[in-house]
Amino acid sequence: MSRIAVASGKGGTGKTTIAVNLARVMPGPVTVMDCDVEEPNVHLFLSPRDLQTEPVGIPVPKINTDLCTVCGECARFCEYNALGDMQTKIVVFNELCHGCGGCTRVCPEGAITEVDRVIGEVSRGKATDNITVITGRMNVGEALSPPVIRAAKAQAVEGTVIVDAPPGTACPFAAAVRGADLVVLVTEPTPFGVHDLGLAAETLAAMNLPFGVVINRSGEGDDTVEEVCHRHGAPLLARIPEDRAIAEAYSRGELLVDALPQYRDAFINLEQRIAEILNASGEES
Amino acid sequence: MKVLITAEGKDLDANVDPRFGRAAFFLVVDTDKGEVVEAVDNGAGRGAAQGAGVQAAQTAARLGVSALISGHCGPNAFSAMQAANIKIYTGATGTVRHALEQFHKGELTPADDADVRGHW
Question: Which pTM does this prediction carry?
Fold first, then answer.
């Protein structure tokens, strides 16, 4: 069972478009995981039904003031300043806590226990007999998305997994792509697109994850993308042309492979390229 | 009394740094003598990935000041300072010397809430 992550350094390049249409042309069962938990949108295209939803929480410290001696060890330990040593008492800022649990370990008095704080949810449902959709969703006002992404990724899956990653190259991106057998980096051939493709490529190289590139809105500037591919030894997997009809179908929440059959072959070819690469790497290892 | 004034430099002629958590320096000032008792470099707070306000409030509590004089104060710093019973005076402008004058003339009133949002 392989795991493909669709990612991009720059936002709005077409990650979701690639992810959902790829899912649609997969010959076998597939699970699409929407890990863009700040603004998940896979469900708009695949319409999963009979959703089962569960909350996602992180452990935050609760201080037993009867035991606390205000020694300050917890506050000194906390890299995120979620605990403040105010000399006469320790104050806790739950929204700054990353849930690492370190404070409970360094407290010499055993005065800190952990309580769950809900920061989001994960839902799952079937879009078709073949397609399962898992959606991670962070609550409005929260800032810490990796725990929600990890919760989505911890769900049981069927068949090939396609992760729709959040944009960027920071922690949420890393949390989403970690463990992928192949990362599909979607870019557009603009200076911004190419710049952020370079950042994403460097991050993936540092994470030792194999990747290929899809050029969306292909046309003028493709050579600048090809140069990045060449530099990183990454295959160019597909080109999706600049076409207003694609944007129109997208804005109606339609799948390109259904609304615009002329693009169906492009996604079938992409699926086959990915399968070839995964097969080849499977044989190597 | 001992107050903490946020500043861009180390002496009375430095400008007030309008931020608390990410101020360049924390000056501990004796308001009776009008002298800087101690200048604390806040490089760590400036570089903090998050929670600079909480960190600054801890420093204020550790330094044992009874009040803060600054330009603004965010929500986390505000509640941490309240927990330590440190009064907060916002709206200070100009040099540290000028801020002290504002304080003595009663032109700065104690804030009863944060006046800016986090990450201001």
Answer: 0.84
